[in-house]
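Dear U.,

For the methods section draft, I wanted the exact inputs and outputs in one place so we can describe them consistently. I've listed the two proteins in the order they'll appear in the manuscript figures. Please don't edit the C-alpha cell lines directly; just add comments below if something needs changing.

First protein:
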Amino acid sequence: MSAQPTVTHKKRVACVLAQFDTAADVIHAAEKVRDAGYQSWDTHTPFPIHGMDKAMGLSDSRVGWIVLGGALTGLSVAFVMMWWMNGVDYPTVVGGKPPFTTPSMVPVLFELTVLFSSFAAVFGMLGLNKLPRHHHPVFESERFRKASDDKFFISVEAEDPKFNADKVRALFEGVHATFVEVLEVLEEEVEA
C-alpha cells in the first residue's frame, strides 16, 4: 500500500497594503510608488479620483482599439454574410433589383457592427482587468472594508519584480500612511 502524501501549509507574503485618510494623500503616495518603479500595484478608493491615472502613470485604455477591432470584424462578417446569402448562395430578384445591393444591407451591417463592438468591449474590459478574480489578498484585511466607505488604500503585490516587504513598508511610512499592513496567504505544499 502506498503512503499518503503529506500536505503542509505555510504562509507567504502576498502584498503590502497602506491606508490613507484623504484623496490628496493617496494621490501623493501613488506618485511616490510610481516614481519608485513598482509595476504590480493598485489604488483602492471609495470613489473615482480625478488625476489618479496620471499619478499612477497609466497610459490610455486599450479598450477602444479592441472595440474598433470588434466593430470592423462585425462589419466584415455582416458584409460577407449578406454577399454570400443574397448574391451567391440564393440570389433572389425582387422588383427587378439586383440581388446584391448595399441599401438593403445597411440594417444588418449596422446591427452586427454594434453587436460585435459590444462583445469586444465587455470581454476586452474583463480581459484587461484580469477578471473575474474571485479572491484577492486585500480582502483578508479588516481595515480594507473601509475602501468602499471613506478610506483610501494602495496595495503593492508580491509578484512585483522590485518587491521587498520592508522597503515597501518604509516607502508607505515615508508618505505618512495612517496604517501599513503586510498581508499573507496560505499555500499548500504536497510532499510525496
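Second protein (the one for the lower panel):
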Amino acid sequence: MSRRRTAAIVLAAGHGTRMKSEMPKVMHPLAGRPMLRLILETLEQTGIDDICVVIGPDMDQVRDAAQPHGTAVQTERLGTAHAALAARNTIPADIDDLLILNADNPLIPAASIEALLAKRAEAANPAVVVLGFRSTRTHAYGRMVVSDDGTLYRIVEAKDADPEEFAIDLCSSGMMALDGRAAFEMLEKIGNDNAQGEYYLPDVVHVAREMERPCTFVEGPEAELLGINSRAELAVAEARIQRRLRNDAMDGGATLIAPETVFFSFDTKLGRDVVIEPNVVFGPGVDIADNVTIRAFSHLEGATVAPGATVGPFARLRPGANLSRNVHIGNFVEVKNATMGEGAKANHLSYVGDSDVGAGANIGAGTITCNYDGVFKWRTTIGEGAFIGSNTSLVAPVTVGPGAVTGAGSTIAKDVDAGALAVTRAPQKQIKDWGRQTRERKLALKAKGEKG
C-alpha cells in the first residue's frame, strides 16, 4: 500500500484584537518563540508533506516566522473557510489528506494530528474528520451533534445553539482533516448566509453531508486544544508549557529546588546533575553542561556553561557568554559576549563584556570592562592567571598579560605586560590630626545652632 500524501493549512491571518497589541497574535511568544512556530514544529514532527500558512496583508513578521514553509495571503478577512481557500494555489492537487489547523492553538499534540489522519485513512473514507474535546465548562466553542455510531451531523456555533445543543459536552476545536481530493470543492460550496456574512469552516460538515459523504470526529485533550485569544489565555498556555519543560528537565537528571519558580525557553539544554536554585530564568539559546550550579535569581540567555561551573546568585549571562570548566560567576556579575577560561573567577559586582579571560584569572569586585566608546565595541584580553584588583576599569581595547596584576582602583587604558603590576591611582597623602580637629570644630558650630 502506497504512503498517503498529506498537506496542512495553518490559519494565521487573524488580528487578535483581544490581545490589544500591534503585534500579530500568532507572533506572541510561548517559551521564548512565536506561538506559530510551536504548531509548525509539531506538524514537521508528524511528517506532513506540504505546509502553507495563511497570513493577512502586511504580515511580514508572520511570513518570516513561517519559513521555510510557504504562505498565502487572505486579502479580505471573510471567515475561516475563506482563509483556507486562500491557500488553494499552494497545495498540491494529488494529496490524500488536508489538515486545517489554527495557529492560535499552538499546544495541539502530535498525537491529535495523527488521530485525525488515522481516522481519515479508515475504510469508511470520511470526507471530514473534526478534532473535538469533552468539556463540562461553558465554552464559546461550537457543539458537535453526533449519532451513536459516531457520525457527525453538524457543528452548531455556541451562540446559535438551543439549550439542548448548548448542553452538549462535545466541543469542536475548529481543526479538522478533509479528503484532500475533494477539500477545495467542499470549501467553495460553503455559503455566508449568517449574521456576520462570513464563510465558516465548520459548515464544511453540512456541505459534505449534502454530497452524501460521511463525517466523523476524534477527541483530544481539552487543555491542549483551547485557543489563545487574550493575554490571560496566553499566560495559561505559557504555564502549561513551563510545567512540561520543568518535568522534562527533572526527568533528564536536573535538580530544580523550586520548579514552579524556574522558567525555561523552548531550546534550553541541561546536562545531568545540574542544580537550579529558585527564581532562575532561561532565555533562548542556553546550553548547560553536567554538574553546573545555577544559583537563585539569575538570568541566562544565549550562553554556554561548561561542566563544574557555578553561576550566581543574582548573576546575568547575556548572549555570547561562554564559561569554561569550573568558572565561578558570582552575585551581581554580568557577562556579555565574553569567554571565561577554565577556573576563572568573577565573584561579585563586575561587568565583563566583549572580553577573553584566561584560565585561572581572578576579576576583583567592582571591575568594569569599558568596551563601548559610544560608536564601536572593543575587546579586552586578560591573560591566564592575571589578577584584576577591585574597582579596576579596563578601557578597551586593552590587554592584561598572563600573570599580571592591576592595582585596586586603577583605570587601565594601556596594555600590561605579562607578570607586571599596573597601578594608576593618585599618590596617597596624609594630614596629621585633620579628622579630630574637623570633627571638634563642626560639633562646636552645631552646639551654637550654626553650620560650617
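Candidate sentences for the figure legend, describing the second protein: The CA atoms of residues 148 and 216 lie 11 Å apart. The mean pLDDT is 94.

Thanks,
Y.
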